[in-house]
Design goal:
Layout lengths: L1 H12 L14 E2 L1 H15 L11 H12 L2 E6 L2 E6 L2 H10 L6 E2 L3 H7 L9 H17 L5 H19 L9 H16 L9 H18 L1 H8 L1 H4 L5 H26 L8 H11 L10 H32 L1 H14 L15 H14 L8 E2 L4 E3 L2 E3 L4 E4 L1 H5 L42 H18 E4 L13 E2 L3 E2 L6 E4 L1
Parallel strand pairs: 1-2, 3-8
Antiparallel strand pairs: 2-3, 4-5, 5-8, 6-7, 9-12, 10-11
């Protein structure tokens, strides 16, 4: 069956070629080459099993860039994208020449769900106005400030209560982590906190978790290559769209609830602030502050700020299970800087360089969103001497920066020392871009980093992380790898210290 699928896809995508017409274009790698390389590499890794993964980016990225260089063109049917590998090229497009490549390219699954509205998939004046407003408003409601730190500390205590209730028995903490990170985002966005046992809240979170997995699966990748065909066929991609549609309905209902109770003199959260901005802009025929953009911007913030942070936290703990010496070193730092008499605070971060290094290294190593989004060339231009026509899709691969051997020794190994200098002080690295970089860097980077530090420090202050009885090792490679690298589901014993 797998071989039939390979044949069908290769046939549908057409004849491969080694180079594009004209010497000025980046060398071409057509889908037949991509698929063949993915099959060959996966078969080698799996002992010859006939298993197919359309875009097994964790392995094929090394082979492709080695064979074709750091810049080449990939064709998917009639669509093409110029792919960029390595931190230098990624930085050149996203930072140094960011204005030339500011607009998002097409991603069929996101195009269908977002319809060019909101923040993530919008471009031009709409994106500029909505991002500027969102960043200002989120800061006004505490992002990066003391009051949101206190809110995270409060949520951490709810989380610790749930972990203590497990009495050291093994369990999968994924749902609890989603509840915790989702509540912090909900505080800013909706002005409310949900009980961890709230059935509607858990339903929405489960839809979000499943959707992230489906988007990263082979089915999700196939949809983004054959959207016009698969739109009319059943399959997991239809579940993906239904899930996200239900989440959008949830957000839209919250907007309606806010509208009924809005006090113009006392905005409570992001939604209230947006509603007031809509009233101010009523006479502006070109306003971007509309009900449709409010619903989608709130949806963008909710989905982007909840599952990515909880998945990252879960992976960090999984990594510490496999590196007990690292866990012990963090706990020693916690005991020296914080002790056991007070909760961790952001002020402690500056005095805990090893913990900070582990957080950065775990995010780099996980590589949660390896591909990122395509960008579109604003006008005819060139990259490294290659001609890039106006409107071309350019694909700066974030993963290639996070694993660039020019930036990191042994980039495919978990090594906290990547972020420490010879004196043990925390050392920044420009190639550390898990949240992307440039003008379209993730809006919630600061909030995510704050949560990761406070949750991790609080957990390790109170608990030892242990394998379940009979388990000595877990697999840190992704269970699903596509748009996202999704860690495997594992159980952990949280043993009180």
């Amino acid at each position: 069956m797998a071989l039939l699928l390979v044949g069908a896809i290769l046939g549908a995508l057409g004849v491969s070629a080694a180079t594009l017409p004209g010497s000025e274009s980046p060398p071409a790698l057509l889908p037949r080459n991509v698929a063949r390389m993915a099959v060959e590499e996966y078969n080698q890794e799996s002992g010859g099993q006939a298993v197919f993964r359309l875009w097994k980016i964790r392995s094929t990225r090394k082979t492709m860039s080695k064979k074709y260089g750091p810049i080449f063109t990939v064709y998917f049917g009639s669509d093409q994208a110029v792919v960029l590998f390595g931190y230098d090229l990624v930085k050149k497009v996203l930072v140094d020449r960011g204005d030339e490549f500011l607009d998002r390219g097409s991603m069929p699954s996101a195009d269908k769900t977002n319809r060019g509205l909101g923040i993530i998939m919008s471009n031009g004046e709409r994106w500029l106005q909505l991002r500027r407003f969102s960043l200002t408003t989120m800061r006004n409601f505490g992002m990066g400030k003391k009051n949101i730190e206190e809110r995270i500390q409060e949520e951490a205590e709810y989380l610790m209560k749930e972990l203590r209730a497990k009495n050291g028995q093994p369990f999968n903490p994924a749902v609890l982590f989603s509840c915790a990170t989702g509540n912090v985002v909900s505080h800013i966005l909706l002005g409310e906190r949900f009980d961890y046992n709230d059935p509607e809240y858990r339903r929405i979170l489960s839809l979000l978790v499943e959707s992230f997995r489906l988007e990263s699966s082979t089915a999700g990748q196939l949809y983004n290559i054959f959207p016009r065909i698969l739109d009319y066929l059943p399959g997991p991609h239809q579940t993906f769209f239904k899930n996200l549609g239900d989440i959008q309905v949830f957000i839209a209902q919250k907007v309606k609830d806010h509208e009924r109770s809005l006090d113009p003199n006392a905005p409570r959260d992001f939604i209230d602030s947006f509603l007031l901005k809509m009233e101010q802009e009523q006479q502006n025929p070109k306003t971007e502050f509309t009900r449709e953009n409010l619903n989608m911007a709130a949806y963008d913030i909710f989905i982007a700020g909840t599952e990515t942070t909880s998945t990252t936290l879960r992976y960090i703990l999984m990594t510490l299970l496999e590196h007990p010496a690292v866990q012990e070193k963090i706990q020693k730092e916690i005991d020296q800087v914080i002790g056991q008499e007070r909760p961790p605070a952001m002020k402690d971060r500056l005095e805990m360089p090893y913990t900070e290094a582990v957080l950065h290294e775990a995010q780099r190593f996980l590589d949660l969103v390896p591909l990122g989004f395509t960008r579109v060339a604003k006008h005819d231009t060139e990259i490294e001497g290659y001609f890039i026509p106006k409107g071309s899709s350019v694909f700066p691969i974030l993963s290639s920066a996070l694993h660039d051997p020019k930036q990191y020794d042994n980039p495919f190994q978990f090594t906290p020392e990547h972020f420490l200098d010879e004196k043990g002080n925390f050392k920044k690295n420009g190639a550390d871009i898990p949240f992307s970089t440039g003008k379209r860097i993730c809006l919630g980077e600061g909030l995510a980093r704050m949560q990761l530090f406070l949750y991790l420090a609080t957990i390790l202050q109170r608990f030892h992380l242990r394998h379940p009885p009979g388990v000595t090792k877990i697999d840190l490679t992704p269970e699903v790898s596509g748009f996202g690298n999704i860690p495997r589901q594992v159980s952990i014993c949280f043993t009180p210290r």
